[in-house]
Design a protein that fits this description.
By secondary structure, this protein is mainly alpha-helical. Helices cover about 35% and strands about 5% of the residues. One of its GO terms (molecular function) is GTP binding.
């Protein structure tokens, strides 16, 4: 589980319990700082030992080979670099930097197949598309900034009047167009970017169980008040 520094710690713990209940080992790893990496490396070393034990009567010493597979821009290449102790995999804060599949080597006991991000378009509805947009799993050309900005303000941050919130948000930053009107597109882009950078608080978009997804004003029970942004931030 990458980018745990951006997620609600309580929700991350829920996901860890859920994965555990499914018999699926999970490890939150901050690829920027390396926090959590040690536990994952020890797990992989143990897995390698288990694999080598299967070759009874044979002298074999080869690395564990793994494939990194998942959505775009979730940190697969950054995780690969951390796991291998190298900077061989290209990485950055936008989707699509990994072109083609390629093997990466660094540590003696491990080899990784880094792959481009993939999305199953058959599973994407309007709600999922917006979640992919705010996490930058899809390119900016694939969504409308203003539409996603309004959704983020209302459904994730819990503001009942997203227009008023975005207007105040844009005004506080000086996003004015000709005539003195607030530029809602610029305000939306800035709000989305602040979400991506964690400036709006540590927020998780989903819980393990669909009935407890974070959404709307009903989210008061699941979104801590201190994780929301105030209607107008006087310090900016």
């Amino acid at each position: 589980m990458t980018k745990p520094d951006l997620a609600d710690p309580g929700v991350t713990r829920e996901w860890l319990r859920w994965f555990g209940s499914q018999g699926l080992p999970a490890f939150p790893v901050d690829c920027r700082t390396g926090e959590g990496l040690g536990g994952l490396l020890e797990f992989l070393k143990e897995k390698r030992s288990q694999v080598l034990l299967r070759f009874k009567g044979k002298v074999i010493d080869r690395p564990l080979r793994l494939m990194l597979f998942g959505l775009p821009n979730v940190g697969k290449s950054s995780l690969a670099n951390r796991l291998l102790g190298t900077t061989k995999a290209p990485f950055g804060a936008k989707p699509g930097l990994t072109r083609g599949s390629h093997w990466l080597r660094g540590r003696e006991f491990l080899e990784l197949l880094d792959t481009p991000g993939v999305i199953d378009t058959s599973l994407i509805d309007d709600e999922i598309r917006k979640k992919l947009a705010v996490t930058w799993a899809i390119p900016e050309t694939a969504y409308d900034d203003e539409e996603v900005g309004f959704w983020l303000a209302e459904k994730v941050l819990g503001y009942s009047d997203p227009l008023s919130f975005l207007s105040n948000f844009g005004l506080s930053r000086g996003f004015l167009s000709q005539g003195g009107r607030v530029d809602l597109i610029r305000a939306s882009k800035a709000l989305i970017q602040e979400f991506r950078e964690g400036k709006l608080g540590r927020i998780s978009l989903e819980r393990p169980y669909k009935t407890t997804e974070l959404k709307g004003e009903a989210g008061n029970e699941v979104i801590p008040e201190d994780s929301r942004v105030p209607p107008v931030r006087q310090d900016l």
